[in-house]
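Bump. Still looking for Ribosomal RNA small subunit methyltransferase G structure tokens.
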Amino acid sequence: MSEREPLRQRLRSGLTALNLTLGDAVVEQLLDYVDLLLRWNTAYNLTAVRDAGEMVTRHLLDSLAILPYVEGRSLADLGTGAGLPGIPLALARPELEVCLVDSNGKKARFLREAVRQLHLAHARIVEARAESASGRYDCVTARAFATLADMLGWGGHLLADDGRWLALKGRFPQDELDNLPSGFVVEAVHRLAVPGLDAERHLVIIKRSGDGPAARKPS
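Sorry for the wait, here they are.
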């Protein structure tokens, strides 16, 4: 049995639990991404997770748990870090135009190499803070790097008029839900069951409300 086989089995088992069907080629690309993370992590400190099996659970499956909620043709992933959840989503949806936004130079260098090696033709990297990024996207993702109010304040200008903001959170963020900036409304909150992860996960879906000024790019 190859060294990769246990990881492959863990990933496939998790995908089954999430009711996701991905082809063999995509599964191998996802594991190639884990290999890249492992190789670059020593020098670049991309993630606190050091074990390949834990990366499958905490990075791949945790990211792919929101795949059923990704709609439209374009997605911006703010504060993407090592490419999470943006790269797993881009691998699962190769036709999706994905913009990976992060201001950290070392992480941006890793992202460029990952996009090149994984042949992500529709992914691009923006080395900048969220508030400096431009464009409009059908989906915007952010993986718990700030409060909902701060996320929307920094990146709300990137959300298309009929787009959906997909915010990944741990515990149910009631205080944050009560303090959304004007121009935005919570469409739904879904509790996510990530296979192998013994921790709370919630997905907050936010859309423009149309009853107030939405967050805009600062002048």
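The first strand starts at residue 74 and ends at 78.

Edit: fixed formatting.
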